[in-house]
UniProtKB/TrEMBL annotation:
Belongs to the Orn/Lys/Arg decarboxylase class-II family. LysA subfamily. It comes from Gryllotalpicola daejeonensis. Substrate binds at residues 315, 360, 364, 392, 421. This is Diaminopimelate decarboxylase. Pyridoxal 5'-phosphate binds at residues 270, 312-315, 421. Keywords: Amino-acid biosynthesis, Decarboxylase, Lyase, Lysine biosynthesis, Pyridoxal phosphate. The gene is lysA. Specifically catalyzes the decarboxylation of meso-diaminopimelate (meso-DAP) to L-lysine. Residues 68-318 form the Orn/DAP/Arg decarboxylase 2 N-terminal domain. The lineage of its organism: Bacteria, Bacillati, Actinomycetota, Actinomycetes, Micrococcales.
Length: 466
């Protein structure tokens, strides 16, 4: 089949529309002898039968393996330059008590960014000393809760927060470990809404304010300054940006050492993953040594010891192990004029979920991929746009993918790489209940987050009559 002129340039016609490209699918994903996709040894047809759809499915072994691999690679790279490292799982990517326990068991700490995430981490039984708290506008109640439970570190995000955290710590008779979040000025190469270290955005403080603000932190008996923090942004490929931020922060870190200890440096997360066959992502564990070696080289040039390091990956751990299962409802071939004047047809395939379970196209024009999952097909590929069922024309889950031209109502479709920032960004828009999250492993499936029911949907409506 020739390329459809409506297809984006990165999308190529797959040699085999039934194949599962390894860069985007969970480690255990395979198509069985019946042509059905299995994840964790469980056929998607069985998942549909038992749990319905839409359904978030996580390959538990893959998620645990990625967490361990990242933890181990960063630990080894730190050891190689004579230092140590703490790897926090960024809970905002996907958080439930179960997943919190997986990452803790893999040796990671856990980063939270709201009282709600903190509550989930505590409900999972995570030792508060292994928790971090972020946020550009933490409420006084959030700060108080964090301090009172004995949180490991709080990342101070503004000048005002210094006094707020110091006051809470005094009140609780604690000396709170804190970091200061800094804008390195590096503008991450990612979607505009996903870059977080350039000057003109809401997170962190400017590099040139750091010395004054750290002096302020150090003036409080109730605060223990452990170091600077920078998070360039998310879905960033390669290590160049993070290494550049480290270089800029270390120059200030060296000056801060003249007036007191600065034991740590936290370089955030942001490691990008592949969402489609056009994405070439280096695995986060491959980036550990290049990043940490470059930190060590900058420290050597400045004549300072390599600090204890910290990182906060989220997507790189949970993104690829997660997929979303949908049932196809309606299809419509739509013929429009393509660039150059010729007409071409794309097939709109509407599924039983949409932007309420995956907001990433609507928010960032994220380009996911998909596969027909309930059967194999030899039909020639057609250009498909997978839409949801919401009352929005921008309700698109997969903007462009080649799927077998015979896909039909009742087929199951799976969108891979939805483990990060899909469940966490989910909503009840149009009163669609949030889907369940199921962990699959060794041929077994179990619910780790219960799906919402009509009763849940009505449960907050104060006007419902009994
Ligand atoms: C401060 C901070 N740390 C860590 C992360 C995790 O990012 P990612 O999931 O891309 O690794 C984020 C999200 O972008 C963040 O804002
Ligand atoms: N929600 C974003 C990531 C935000 C990360 C938090 N700073 C995404 O889906 O990519």
């Amino acid at each position: 089949m020739v390329t459809n002129p409506l297809a984006p340039s990165w999308l190529t016609v797959p040699a085999d529309v039934n194949a599962l490209p390894v860069n985007v699918w969970p480690a255990s994903a395979t198509r069985n002898a019946d042509g059905v996709i299995e994840i964790g040894g469980v056929p998607v047809t069985a998942l549909k039968e038992q749990f319905g759809s839409p359904l978030y499915v996580i390959d538990e072994a893959d998620a645990r393996a990625r967490a361990a691999r990242i933890h181990d690679a960063f630990t080894a790279a730190a050891e190689a330059v004579g230092t140590t490292v703490t790897v926090y799982y960024a809970g905002k990517a996907f958080l439930s008590t179960e997943v919190a326990r997986w990452v803790i068991e893999a040796g990671l700490n856990l980063d939270t960014c709201s009282a709600g995430e903190l509550a989930v981490a505590l409900a999972a039984g995570v030792d508060p000393a292994r928790l971090g708290l972020h946020g550009n506008n933490k409420s006084l109640a959030e700060i108080d809760r964090a301090v009172s439970v004995g949180l490991g570190t709080i990342v101070i995000d503004s000048e005002q927060e210094i006094e707020r955290v110091a006051a809470a710590a005094s009140r609780h008779g604690r000396r709170q470990r804190v970091r200061l979040r800094v804008k390195s000025g590096v503008h991450a190469e990612t979607h505009a809404y996903l870059a977080t270290a350039h000057e003109d955005q809401k997170f962190g403080v400017s590099l040139d304010e750091v010395e004054r603000l750290v002096a302020g932190i150090r003036s409080h008996e109730s605060l223990d300054f452990v170091g600077l923090h920078c998070h360039n942004g998310t879905q960033v490929f390669g290590s160049a940006g993070i290494a550049e931020s480290a270089r800029r922060l270390l120059a200030v870190h060296a000056r801060l050492l003249e007036d007191g200890p600065v034991p740590e440096l936290n370089l955030g997360g942001g490691f990008g993953i592949a969402y489609n066959t056009g994405d070439e992502a280096t695995d986060a564990w491959e980036l550990a040594a290049p990043i940490i070696d470059s930190v060590a080289a900058h420290c050597a040039a400045l004549g300072i010891p390599v600090p204890h390091l910290a990182f906060e990956p989220g997507r790189a751990i949970i993104g690829t192990p997660g997929v979303t299962l949908y049932e196809l409802g309606t299809t419509k071939p739509v013929t429009v004029e393509a660039e150059g004047g010729a007409t071409a047809t794309r097939l709109y395939a509407s599924v039983d979920g949409g932007m309420s379970d995956n907001a990433r196209y609507a928010l960032y024009q994220a380009q996911f991929s998909a596969r027909l999952a309930s059967r194999r097909s030899d039909a020639s590929p057609a250009l498909v746009r997978i839409a949801g069922k919401h009352c929005e024309s921008g309700d698109i889950v997969v903007d462009a993918e080649y799927l077998p031209g015979d896909i039909a109502p009742g087929d199951l479709l799976v969108v891979p790489a939805t483990g990060a920032y899909c469940f966490s960004l989910s909503s009840r828009y149009n009163y669609l209940p949030r889907p369940a999250v199921v962990a699959v492993r060794d041929g077994q499936a179990r619910v780790i987050v219960r799906g919402e029911t009509e009763e849940d949907l009505l449960s907050h409506d104060a006007g419902v009559r009994a």
